[in-house]
Amino acid sequence: DSDTNQDIYLIKNFGKQAGLSINPETPVKAVLHFFDDIDLLSLYSASPGFSGQKLQEAVYGRIREAKKIAPELPVEIDIGVNEETAPKLAKAGADFLIATSYLHNSDDYFLAYEKLAKLASKPT
């Protein structure tokens, strides 16, 4: 905790924005005390390690929980973002989606991005 506090302080001291990423097993409430100091909360929807992992369904509840606690804090989702999950993630309250595998595995990055952005802008 003290290292994280120090890192956030140093980042802010340089006039930059600070984000915090948490793994699926870390409760959102465990990092609540950082919410006033960070500019972005990044939720991993699966344990980080390799590309192409499936999204864990619990992330939808974690997004809603974070938004209930801090509605103005942007929430980003990493891992498991695709055509099926993007609209659901947006509906749950995600502000940013990281779709590395989805884009990397597409034939045309631009078209894949456009399609995903359109799907995410119209949550189901």
* Biggest sheet: strand arrangement: 1-2-3-4
CATH architecture: Alpha-Beta Barrel
Summed up, the helix count is 5
Question: What is the number of E strands?
Answer: 4
CATH topology: TIM Barrel
CATH hierarchy class name:
Alpha Beta
The tally of domains stands at 1
Explain what the structure shows.
This protein is α/β, with parallel strands linked by helices and 124 residues long. It has one domain: Alpha-Beta Barrel (TIM Barrel). Helices cover 40% and strands 13% of the residues. The chain is built from five helices and four strands; from the N terminus they run αββαβαβαα. It has helices spanning 2-13, 58-69, 85-92, 100-104, 109-121, and strands at 19-22, 40-44, 75-78, 96-98. A four-stranded parallel sheet has the order 1-2-3-4, with helices on one face. Helix 2 links the parallel strand 2 (40-44) and strand 3.
How are the elements arranged and paired?
Layout: H1 2-13, E1 19-22, E2 40-44, H2 58-69, E3 75-78, H3 85-92, E4 96-98, H4 100-104, H5 109-121
Parallel strand pairs: 1-2, 2-3, 3-4
Helix pairs in contact: 3-5
